[in-house]
């Protein structure tokens, strides 16, 4: 070996036994001959490996790679035969520092993370700042973590992907920490992967088929330096949309996140969820990283090859900021595509996850200068990759720079999309806005205007009304305006266009009429979401009325604003019962989860769906319309359903269509009725008397024949 191995600060040199090594695979891997390290950098002039002992601030040794002996093409590599896998490691790279010229950011004084690291050290305790000897903890230094080797020796005991069809899926979005962190959660290990395992019986009883986890890749929760101006509380990056290492699960979400054990605990969570029949979908962030803009920290990609990993202005070399977070990953560069694909495969093959929700996915459709590509290689590669062929891939089909691609993100049938049009159109109807009835019908029927092309289906639409980003369902009916002062940004952050209505009073109230209207509107929203064609996505806690006190951007709130208060599951047990039974109804009847669109213009008697306003055969698609009803025709051996929706300010009476011969209409749901009459089992359903049905304002009624 022509490279050098040296001790630091008077320490004796470590006698590593080294050889050339191999450029593949990337990252750190164990071979019969030893441990191989491989790192891509096109523009580095010198590369060295830096090793640390556990809890040591100063390096133990540094191995300098010979550019002639330890480099193949643009990959630097070395094999260490007697490497101790308990050591921590990172890289130093030397090269030009010319941010505004060539765009390079080489800073050899820093130790960088391996982009392929499967686990990081230094972040095992949530919210604990990195501490230098003799100094106060420094929140901004907490990203100074090291890479760790993890052995892939987990016993999956035959676990295999569940491969639940999209049309049968009900997705439930949650935050690993926030889901069980509250003292009321009743779990032994709050805020962790194991805490989520303890909540599996609840998830099973609720009836969902998949959990969608907010980012679990390593991030620095302490990168937010703001404080709550009302309390002085230090704020955090609670959500985690700021990745440090794409391959590494968050150590602070493990009970014991040391020495790579976070990988094992994550796998235990996946295995337990699979055993319960629940899939795991990850919210992944490949559009930006925690390095931020030019004034941000150099952690990994920036110091390894800035011009490869990020989009830069071709003239000024400033970061192009389509993510709103200071930088934009150069997703369609061939090498960056390769890294992302290897990361996705790792999570599927080694970690057994079932799918991905791609944050600000439209960025993956931008070229190296930020231009919108007609056929983005990154998007196509994900859809066509054989390893990912049965995983769920869901695009958040917009970015922070105004590119909105709902319905046009990709023509490939594998890509599903978060249907922002569904969210907005349903919200308008629930607020009683003009011109909302016709768009609502299109959304209920599966959004054929967006997805009925190139072989796409209703399941390409991921329907949602609320998500982590915005109001909760309870806040949607309780607030006209965002209330984000606690975020420390003078209420400037968060969306101003919420399409919400407070039902008569802003925020908390004891007015019974207002409260009754709110609970009614929440149940009506649930009916629309769960009985529409497409794939429903629920926000955790909506099923029992969780509030964020009007905060529609709680990304920084590691407290009771974001944590689920499980006492509400008992306090609002009637609402939780409603959700459970509604989910069960959807799962029982395939009419609510079709795998194809309704056939248009069918002859009378052969229609699959029939629309009306107050009278059968008469639709009202005008801007003034506030009511909508439709009949789902079940065919042989299946029941028909009739849904009535009233967003008017007063009750409306609907004339019922004739049920199939020999059948009668029975009432299953009335969102204006008190529990338990708001939703009943079929055996309890009472026959409707006469041919008319009165529906309260902002209520929904469901009949079965």
Automatic annotation (TrEMBL):
One of its GO terms (biological process) is glycogen catabolic process. Gene3D superfamilies: Glycosidases, Golgi alpha-mannosidase II, Immunoglobulins. SMART domains: Aamy (SM00642). Residues 173-586 form the Glycosyl hydrolase family 13 catalytic domain. InterPro entries: GH (IPR017853), GH13_cat_dom (IPR006047), GlgX_Isoamylase_N_E_set (IPR044505), Glyco_hydro_13_N (IPR004193), Glyco_hydro_b (IPR013780), Glycogen_debranch_GlgX (IPR011837), Ig-like_fold (IPR013783), Ig_E-set (IPR014756). Pfam families: Alpha-amylase, CBM_48, ISOA1-3_C. This is Glycogen debranching enzyme GlgX.
């Amino acid at each position: 070996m022509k490279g050098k191995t040296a001790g630091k600060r008077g320490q004796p040199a470590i006698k590593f036994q080294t050889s050339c090594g191999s450029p593949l695979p990337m990252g750190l891997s164990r071979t019969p001959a030893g441990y191989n390290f491989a790192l891509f950098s096109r523009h580095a002039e010198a590369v060295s490996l830096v090793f640390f002992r556990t809890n040591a601030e100063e390096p133990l040794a540094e191995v300098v790679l010979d550019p002639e002996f330890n480099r193949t093409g643009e990959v630097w590599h070395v094999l260490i035969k007697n490497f101790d896998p308990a050591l921590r490691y990172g890289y130093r790279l030397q090269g030009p520092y010319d941010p505004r010229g060539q765009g390079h950011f080489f800073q050899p004084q820093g130790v960088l993370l391996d982009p392929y690291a499967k686990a990081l050290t230094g972040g095992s305790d949530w919210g604990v700042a990195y501490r230098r000897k003799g100094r106060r903890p420094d929140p901004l230094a907490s990203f100074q973590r090291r890479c760790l080797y993890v052995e892939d020796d987990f016993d999956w005991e035959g676990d295999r992907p569940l491969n639940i069809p999209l049309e049968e899926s009900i997705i439930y979005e949650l935050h690993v920490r926030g889901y069980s962190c509250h003292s009321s959660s009743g779990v032994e290990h709050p805020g962790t992967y194991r805490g989520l395992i303890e909540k599996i019986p609840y998830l099973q009883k609720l009836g969902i088929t998949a959990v969608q986890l907010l980012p679990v890749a390593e991030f620095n929760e302490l990168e937010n330096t703001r404080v709550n101006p009302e309390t002085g509380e230090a704020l955090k990056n609670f959500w985690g949309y700021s990745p440090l290492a794409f391959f590494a699960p968050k150590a602070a979400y493990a009970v014991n996140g040391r020495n790579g054990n976070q990988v094992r605990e994550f796998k235990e969570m996946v295995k337990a969820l699979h055993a319960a029949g629940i899939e795991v979908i990850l919210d992944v962030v490949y559009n930006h990283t925690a390095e931020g803009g030019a004034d941000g920290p150099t952690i990994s990609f920036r110091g390894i090859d800035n011009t490869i990993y990020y989009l830069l202005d071709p003239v000024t070399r400033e970061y192009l900021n389509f993510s709103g977070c200071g930088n934009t990953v150069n997703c369609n560069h061939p090498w960056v595509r390769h890294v992302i694909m290897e990361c996705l495969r790792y999570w599927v093959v080694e970690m057994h996850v079932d799918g991905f929700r791609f944050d600000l996915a439209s960025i993956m459709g931008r070229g190296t200068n930020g231009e919108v590509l007609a056929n983005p290689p990154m998007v196509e590669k994900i859809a066509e990759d054989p390893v990912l062929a049965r995983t769920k891939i869901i695009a958040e089909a917009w970015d922070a720079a105004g590119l909105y691609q709902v319905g046009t993100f990709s023509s490939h049938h594998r890509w599903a999309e978060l249907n922002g049009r569904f969210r907005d159109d349903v919200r308008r109807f629930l607020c009683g806005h003009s011109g909302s009835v016709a768009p609502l019908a299109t959304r209920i029927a599966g959004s054929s205007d967006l997805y009925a092309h190139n072989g796409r289906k209703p399941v390409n639409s991921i329907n949602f009304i609320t998500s982590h980003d915005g109001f909760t369902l309870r806040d949607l009916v309780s607030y006209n305006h965002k209330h984000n002062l606690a975020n420390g940004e003078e209420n400037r952050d968060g969306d101003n266009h919420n399409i919400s209505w407070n039902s008569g009073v802003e925020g908390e109230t004891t007015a019974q009429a207002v409260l009754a209207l709110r609970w009614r509107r929440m149940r009506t929203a649930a009916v629309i979401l769960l009985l529409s064609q497409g794939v429903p996505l629920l926000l955790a806690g909506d099923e029992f009325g969780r509030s964020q006190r009007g905060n529609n951007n709680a990304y920084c709130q590691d407290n009771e604003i974001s944590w689920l208060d499980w006492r509400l599951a008992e306090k609002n047990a009637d609402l939780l019962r409603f959700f459970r039974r509604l989910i069960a109804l959807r799962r029982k009847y395939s009419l609510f989860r079709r795998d194809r669109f309704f056939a248009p213009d069918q002859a009378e008697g052969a229609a699959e769906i029939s629309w009306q306003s107050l009278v059968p055969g008469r639709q009202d698609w005008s801007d003034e319309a506030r009511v909508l009803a439709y009949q789902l025709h079940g065919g042989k051996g299946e029941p028909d359903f009739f849904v009535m929706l009233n967003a008017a300010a007063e009750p409306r009476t609907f004339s019922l269509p004739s049920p199939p011969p020999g059948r009668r209409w029975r009432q299953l749901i009335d969102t204006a009725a008190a529990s338990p009459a708001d939703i009943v089992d079929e055996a309890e359903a009472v026959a409707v008397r006469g041919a008319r049905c009165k529906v309260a304002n902002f209520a929904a009624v469901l009949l079965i024949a």
